[in-house]
């Protein structure tokens, strides 16, 4: 579908896309990545055998698909001086809060997809939520294929849903890591060493998450199945429920969603 792919912004997520593009069969010779840091570029060239450049225009001029992976606040500087887009070039943006309209104006193209991935994409277990404008069916299919190599993907009908997903799955790993860090400390207080506590908590999160995905039961019902009357889990939840976590997470997600909308409107 896309013979040549350019990646503008070869940071952490830019590198994730490089590795996954190679995984889905793109030849390294057909990938070019840009970044201002020459040492970083040399390391990427050595590791993946791709072409690299400090000039964003080099990733732009010959590519069929351009992945925009710069920081949102750098969007105008990084993209504002690029050559005029060719009519068939497709742009895939992972810039948080930068709207499709804004990207279209910066690159002078109507073929733009916007995705909100998350950090577990680094190990192929991510959740990517995306929407697109102006793309043909075959182009969208290839985008879907790339995102599936990062983990699971969900195409939505509007950018407002991207903003909502940013609050849930985009920021979500941080919520889980925060929960995990507290549980690890609490386990250590019970007498486990750090390695043991990390294993107990990490595998419990993996197992519970996998069960939630594979089961047709709700998260609430799955919780009830672990909570025997008069047992240890019930005793724990007599403490946890007093904290009213449901209200805390409801408020937290609404605040995160509001901030995502502000970013999209302000950048």
UniProtKB/TrEMBL annotation:
Ranges of residues in domain Pyrroline-5-carboxylate reductase catalytic N-terminal: 4-96
GO terms, molecular function: pyrroline-5-carboxylate reductase activity
Coiled-coil region list: none
InterPro entries, per the entry: 6-PGluconate_DH-like_C_sf (IPR008927), NAD(P)-bd_dom_sf (IPR036291), P5C_Rdtase_cat_N (IPR028939), P5CR_dimer (IPR029036), Pyrroline-COOH_reductase (IPR000304)
Residues annotated as domain Pyrroline-5-carboxylate reductase dimerisation: 159-263
Location in or out of the cell: Cytoplasm
Domain of life according to the entry: Bacteria
Name of the protein in its database record: Pyrroline-5-carboxylate reductase
Organism: Candidatus Magasanikbacteria bacterium RIFOXYD2_FULL_41_14
Gene giving rise to this polypeptide: proC
């Amino acid at each position: 579908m896309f013979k040549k792919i350019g990646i503008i912004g070869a940071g952490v997520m830019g590198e994730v896309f490089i590795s996954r593009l190679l995984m889905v069969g793109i030849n390294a010779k057909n990938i070019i990545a840009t970044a201002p840091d020459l040492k970083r570029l040399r390391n990427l060239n050595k590791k993946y055998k791709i072409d690299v450049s400090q000039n964003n225009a080099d990733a732009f001029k010959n590519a069929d698909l351009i992945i925009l992976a710069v920081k949102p606040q750098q969007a105008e500087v990084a993209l504002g001086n690029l050559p005029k887009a060719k009519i068939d070039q497709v742009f895939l943006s992972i810039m948080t809060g930068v709207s499709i309209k804004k990207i279209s104006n910066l690159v002078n193209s109507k073929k733009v997809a916007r995705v909100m991935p998350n950090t577990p994409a680094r190990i192929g277990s991510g959740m990517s939520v995306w929407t697109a404008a102006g793309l043909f069916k075959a182009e969208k299919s290839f985008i879907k294929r790339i995102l599936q190599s990062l983990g699971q993907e969900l195409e939505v009908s509007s950018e407002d849903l991207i903003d909502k997903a940013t609050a849930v799955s985009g920021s979500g790993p941080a919520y889980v890591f925060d929960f995990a860090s507290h549980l690890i400390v609490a386990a250590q207080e019970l007498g486990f060493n750090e390695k043991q506590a990390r294993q107990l908590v990490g595998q419990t999160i993996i197992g519970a998450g996998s069960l939630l995905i594979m089961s047709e039961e709700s998260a609430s019902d799955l919780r009830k199945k672990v909570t025997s009357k008069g047992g240890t889990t019930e005793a724990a939840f007599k403490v946890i429920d007093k904290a009213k976590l449901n209200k805390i997470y409801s408020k937290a997600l609404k605040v995160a969603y509001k901030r995502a909308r502000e970013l999209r409107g302000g950048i």
